[in-house]
Amino acid sequence: MRVLIIGAGFAGAAAAYEFKRRFSADVTVIEQSRHAGGMLRTFQTKEGIPYEYGPRIVSVFRGSQDCLPWFRQFLDLQPRDVYQGTCLRPEYPAVPFPVDKPSLLKLPCGDQIAREWEALKGKPAVETNLKTYLESTIGPTLTSLAFAPFNLKFWGRRLEDIPADWGKLRRLERISDKGDYRLPSVAPHYYPKGGFNPLFDKLLNSASELRYGVSVQDISQTPGGGVTVRTDRDTLHADLVLSTAPIDKTLGLRFGELEWKGYRTEIEVIDKPKLGHAPDGVPFSWLYTPYADTQVCRTTDFGVIHHGNSYNQPSVLLKELPDDSVKMYPVWWEGEKFDRYLSEAAKIKGFLPIGRLGMYKYVTMDSTYGMVQRLCDDLSRYAESDHKGRLDVLKHVRGDWAN
Ligand SMILES: Cc1cc2nc3c(=O)[nH]c(=O)nc-3n(C[C@H](O)[C@H](O)[C@H](O)COP(=O)(O)OP(=O)(O)OC[C@H]3O[C@@H](n4cnc5c(N)ncnc54)[C@H](O)[C@@H]3O)c2cc1C
Description:
- By secondary structure, the protein is of the alpha/beta class.
- The protein folds into 3 domains: 2-41 and 196-255 and 330-398, FAD/NAD(P)-binding domain; 44-83 and 185-195 and 263-322, no CATH class; 101-169, no CATH class.
- Helix content is 33%, strand content 21%.
- It has 14 helices and 21 strands.
- The chain has helices at residues 10-23, 67-72, 101-105, 110-120, 130-137, 140-155, 164-169, 197-204, 247-250, 302-307, 335-347, 355-358, 365-383, 387-398; strands at residues 2-6, 26-31, 42-44, 50-52, 58-59, 77-80, 84-86, 95-96, 189-192, 209-212, 216-221, 227-231, 235-238, 240-243, 260-261, 263-270, 286-288, 298-301, 315-322, 329-330, 351-353.
- It has a 6-stranded mixed beta sheet. Strands 10-2-1-14-21 form a 5-stranded parallel beta sheet.
- A hairpin with a 5-residue loop joins strand 11 (216-221) and strand 12.
- Helix 1 crosses helix 13, helix 11 packs across helix 14 (387-398) and helix 13 (365-383) runs antiparallel to helix 14.
- The longest helix has 19 residues, at 365-383.
- The radius of gyration is 22 Å and the shape is globular.
- The mean pLDDT is 93.
- The site of flavin-adenine dinucleotide has 33 residues, from helix 1, strand 2, strand 5, helix 12 and helix 13.
């Protein structure tokens, strides 16, 4: 089986490894940039200090625990405490996020928040939109401090314009009673010793051919079977094409461009934890700043992630400033347009979009691993199916919000 994989990010590299292992496929990988890794690349400052641009920890957020032994074949995973914090106003101290009652009650607005909770007791949630949902579950003060300005800053949307389902899906109403600061990340977290880059050398070792600096332009059905891929250099044919490139672009933007949200970064070298601590003394690995007084929406302390809780050596503090030209987070309001693209992809037998760009889905490493495994498991069903059956397989590979 000749398999062409577009993109040498984590989805493409993991698929190259698994297609070789499970099907003895003859795999060629094409990558538009000069190196592998995609989003999951460990960079270095000019002083040689490592940091990541987007992804930062291996964890089981939504996928299955199976991914941990799989990762351990390639990486030395070191456990880390990863707590997230939020500073609700510039003059307030940082508190854990999701917020917990004891920390909130100590804030200057704590009494007001407590009065609102008391008034809401026993009342049902109002699901007209995200604003009514949050105000009727966590109260108006917390809604306006933690969610309204952040949504405007990062998603460019008012809470009134977002459905309540979005909040329910992400369980935004969660407030822990007893200071369970590790919500929602109760799963253990890991940082690989030496960073993420060695993972790609090992996974891509299984490919017969690896071509860098080649960009795929479009994909079509080869008359008589198989898939044709036109790149900026030449035209290629394969039995199967797994594409981790943006699905809208590989299908010629025929239904228009899918919208993304993202951020650009600013870095600073620091040598001790800078973002405050949870009440149990663990420093925050990253901190949300929802208020409008700053453009920064989140700041990550890579020292805590790379070296542990009480590090004192040079490390990187990275600030994220919203920038929609960077494709990081797909948005819910493009769902219908994406469905049209997926149906179009299923018309080309042998064209399998995967990964975050191919499937227009926010996927962590564990859920990307799950996607690749589902694709391998479903491959014979896909081969025997008509358009509708292939579409069902692609939907199953994509998975739902929970995976
Ligand atoms: C901001 C952010 C933070 C994250 N944090 C975490 C985290 O802490 N933990 C976690 O588990 N996961 C995290 N993730 C998710 C993680 O990044 C993804 O699971 C994984 O890296 C996605 O890999 P991918 O191959 O699908 O996409 P990408 O990494 O984007 O790779 C796609 C590759 O395809 C190439 N490509 C694109 N178009 C073409 C083309 N036309 N021709 C040729 N090549 C092309 C690109 O150059 C790129 O190398 C985060 C993601 C983001 C965006």
